[in-house]
Amino acid sequence: MRRWSLLLVLLWVASSAEAAPPGLTLLEVETAGVPVVPNGVSDDGRIAAGVVQDAQLGPIFWIDGERQIGFPIVGGPPGAGGTVYTGVSGDGTTLVGFQFSDVTNQSVAIRADPVARQGLALPTFGDGLSATAADVSRDGGVIVGSGRRLGGGNEAAVWVNDEIQGLGFLAGDTESLARGVTRDGTIVVGASGGRAVLWDEGTAVELTGFGSDTASSLAQSVASDGAVVVGDLVLDSGATRGFVWEAGNVLVLGDLSGGDDESHLLDVAGDGQRAVGWSDSSRGDQAVIWDPVRGLRSLEDALVNEFGIDPGLFGGIDRLQRATSISEDGRVISGIGIFDGSTNPFLVVLPEPASAWLLGAGLAALASFGRRQRFRA
To answer: Which of 368, 366, 371, 372 is nearest to 7 (CA)?
Structure first.
């Protein structure tokens, strides 16, 4: 009896370890066919946010897959026009992005609470100057992006306690921007003067190791410990390539077969062992996933062949076009695809490796125990 109890406990632990069941979910949209791009997702997959790419950029966010109605931003620009959400904190408490003014043609960085339905414009480097937010730490306390300096160019920026600070530039540059931040908010990545850069405690460090044929580079996202950075680079030939940078070593990725010479990595999981983006191919844009063992491949193929998730079960799938973000634990991926002839945002929840192992071990032990019982009989 004790063995059966142990096995039941093992199976219960395995099943309860998964916060969300594996599978693909189509996010609700208002108008079918209008491109809606989710740009960020919380660690548990409950909160996602992005932009409706219609005539006027519109904000959109989801709670448990259901589309939510927008709300005003306190302190927003006069004649507020389009609004874009660019990121979601890991704990789901904070959305970040920017709001554009039809009157001044300037934008302001914003943060918002999706549950309390309250939004706030963040300060800029001066009155009438633009700023945009791109990413946020797990607890929402550190927001990164860029802002325009009076009489100058854009400078990478960080907001802490709703106060803006400039991150500066590499030597000789006058333009910089921030695109990603670590989970704890201590390390920021982006670009300075067309060179991928990492800011550690406010000091700009150029990411080195790129080939002499690299025309420009941009760091898009960074792992929790700052050791792995992913992004894009442009070669002298005009080709665009996703890259993985780790401690001065650079892996330049290829692309999917066919199509233009183009691939991108947009986000990386906290441990740096899984990243997502998109590549051009003979089928058009296709969402991709990367890890150091299997390399770059189609997300659609990986879901079916590696994770046992068939996007075709959701009817008339043409293709998964872009994977735009991935959660800290690497299990939740957001993106956009074509289903039944219409573009639609989606979330994918991958199986939990640890719980899958426990479940398999439990079932194997149960089968072995059954065999021993039959032998004894």
So the answer is: 366
Rounded to whole angstroms, the Cα distance separating 306 from 308 reads 6
Q: Residues 130-146: pLDDT tens digits? A: 999 999 999 999 999 99
CA distance 45 to 92: 9
Cα–Cα distance measured from residue 131 to residue 150, given in angstroms and rounded to the nearest whole number:
12
In the predicted structure, residue 10 carries a pLDDT above the cut 60: no
Residue type, 279: S
Q: Which helix (H) or strand (E) holds 16?
A: helix 2-16
Is this prediction's pTM over 0.85?
Answer: yes
d(CA 121, CA 104): 15
CA dist., res. 263 & res. 267, Å (int): 13
Query: Domains, the chain, ranges and CATH?
Result: 44-201 (2.120.10.30), 207-377 (no CATH)
Tens-place pLDDT, residues 252-267: 999 999 888 899 999 9
Give the length of the chain.
377
Q: Enumerate residues 6+ apart whose C-beta is below 8 A from 2.
A: none
The more confident residue out of 237 and 30 is 237
Per-residue pLDDT tens for 176-229?
999 999 999 999 999 999 999 999 988 999 999 999 999 999 999 999 999 999
For residue 161, count CB atoms less than 10 angstroms from its CB and return exposed for 0-12, middle for 13-18, buried for 19 or more: exposed
Residue 205: strand pairing partners: 198
DSSP assignment string, 168-214: --STT---EEEEEE-TTS-EEEEEETTEEEEEETTEEEE-----TTE
Copy the structure tokens of residue 184: 């704890």
1-6 average pLDDT score = 38
3-state secondary structure of 21: coil
As given in the structure block, the two tokens for residue 29 are 């949209």
CA atoms of 149 and 175, how far apart (whole Å): 10
CB atoms within 10 A of CB 363: 14
Query: 199 near 156, Cβ under 8 Å?
Result: yes
278 compared with 369, residue with greater pLDDT = 278
